[in-house]
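Appendix B. Raw example, untouched.
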Amino acid sequence: MSIHELFAYLCVDDARQAIEFYGNVFGAREKYRLAEPGGRIGHAELDFGGTTLMLSDEFPEYGIRGPRALGGTPVTIHLHVDDADAVIQRAVAAGAQLEMAPEDRFYGERSGSIRDPFGHRWNIGHSIEDVTPQEMQRRYTESMKAG
């Protein structure tokens, strides 16, 4: 077996608004959408700088629900950008909830996290230094002692 690609596929309670939000905040470009005659979006694909994100509206009749309907999400999407502070600020201005303010992290990134208006958690970061896995482990262990 060969794996060729892996896509995140999000379910939201308002795909039209999500497409607009992801375009305005992250610069995502809509590739296409498939909509029912009533307007519910069954499938859409967004281009995030060469990476595809798929999304759809909720389909409760098939058990397909977004994180708000489920009361949260166990999934975090990590988005690596040029300027995490600016993207997080733009997301919050567009209606996202700030969960963790951006700061320099032990693993060599400046990052923070938001929850988008549709309930999905995004960790947004940019690289500040190259850190080996061994150094990351050392720093992680030290941080656990301090906390």
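End of appendix B.
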